[in-house]
Design goal:
The chain is of the alpha/beta class and 303 residues long. It has 2 domains: 148 residues, 3-Layer(aba) Sandwich (Rossmann fold), CATH 3.40.50; 143 residues, Rossmann fold (3-Layer(aba) Sandwich), CATH 3.40.50.620. 40% of the residues lie in helices and 20% in strands. It contains 11 helices and 12 strands. The protein has a 10-stranded mixed sheet with strand order 3-2-1-4-5-11-9-6-7-8, sandwiched between helices. β2, α2 and β3 form a beta-alpha-beta unit. It is globular and about 70 Å long. It starts with a strand and ends with a strand.
């Protein structure tokens, strides 16, 4: 992991997400790229060249953003029991005029991000379906993992990580190396969770191939596989998180249509509406690397 992008809007949520970024970057030896998208309060006067005004605004906001990052680093160092803990974490700041969603996706590509860390407000399912949030939207479209940090959930450690996955979708091409390296970085306990919706599914599904693939992908880390029958998958995941006292949930969101979205059938959507722990969303291409991105054709996710 080399580059971590942290979108900043100066809200408490984004400040909290930046704290997570410093902790992860310090362990992984990564660089933090602070990113801020903005719109000017008013149009530039006709006497001025618009491009010159935009450039000046971007430069000014980039400077302020870097100062914010440096002050945050100093504050975290002060509060840490380890002297100068975050001194070695490199910082870069970038401010661009435009919409947050579009500009964040551009930054992911431009700076070859390995991870995006964002704050997550939460909200009911209908609000997500009709209005959405920048975090949810980026999570759907990003080609790299996105770590969404719930409001008010402060960094402690990732001692126990739950990877909730539908093993029927885990084909031989699935690439889980990012997750394996992430677990290694934190020396975490990985709990893999597969939920059947009914007994019939459990009796007919052959787990041989996906379990063999997990063995290959996770050969460098210890992990435990858990099976259960839960008609309500989202509730089953939440209950498992609570039972295991998990610090992080990992999902691979999948596209689904507007009807399912409005009927609140998105497991990922329901979990982000009432988040208990940070959510690491792996890109859908994780399941089939090299396959064209289908997320751009849909605007919501389903486990």
């Amino acid at each position: 992991m080399k580059n971590i992008i942290v979108p900043v809007d100066y809200s408490e949520n984004s400040r909290n997400a930046l704290t997570y970024a410093f902790e992860i970057a310090q362990l992984a030896g990564a660089r933090i790229i602070l990113f801020h998208a903005f719109y000017p309060i008013m149009s530039p006067p006709a006497a001025y060249d618009a491009m010159d005004v935009i450039k000046a605004l971007e430069e000014g906001k980039t400077k302020a953003l870097l100062e914010f990052g440096v002050l945050t680093k100093q504050d975290l160092n002060t509060r840490s029991s380890e002297e100068g803990k975050f001194d070695t974490v490199p910082l870069k700041a970038v401010a661009r005029m435009g919409g947050s969603y579009e500009k964040i996706l551009e930054a992911i590509a431009t700076f070859e991000a390995d991870l995006v860390i964002m704050g997550m407000q939460g909200g009911d399912a209908i609000a997500q379906a009709l209005l959405g949030s920048t975090t949810i939207s980026v999570m759907q479209a990003s080609q790299v993992p996105v770590l969404a940090v719930p409001k008010g959930v402060h960094f402690d450690k990732f001692a126990t990580i739950v990877f909730a996955v539908n093993l029927s979708k885990l084909h031989a091409q699935a690439d889980l190396h990012f997750l394996s390296h992430f677990v290694q970085t934190f020396k975490a306990n990985l709990q893999v969770l597969h939920l059947y919706k009914n007994e019939a599914q459990r009796d007919t599904f052959d787990t041989t191939q996906p379990l063999q693939h997990l063995t290959e992908q996770f050969k460098a880390i210890p992990y435990t596989i858990n099976f259960d029958v839960q008609e309500d998958v989202a509730r089953g995941i939440q209950n498992f998180i609570r039972t295991e006292k998990a610090d992080l949930l990992v999902l691979i969101p999948q596209p689904h249509n507007m009807v399912a979205r409005l009927l609140d059938k998105s497991v990922t959507g329901r979990i982000t509406a009432r988040p208990r722990v940070p959510l690491l969303a792996l890109p859908a291409s994780t399941l089939q690397p090299g396959k064209p991105d289908t997320l751009k054709q849909e605007s919501e996710v389903k486990l």
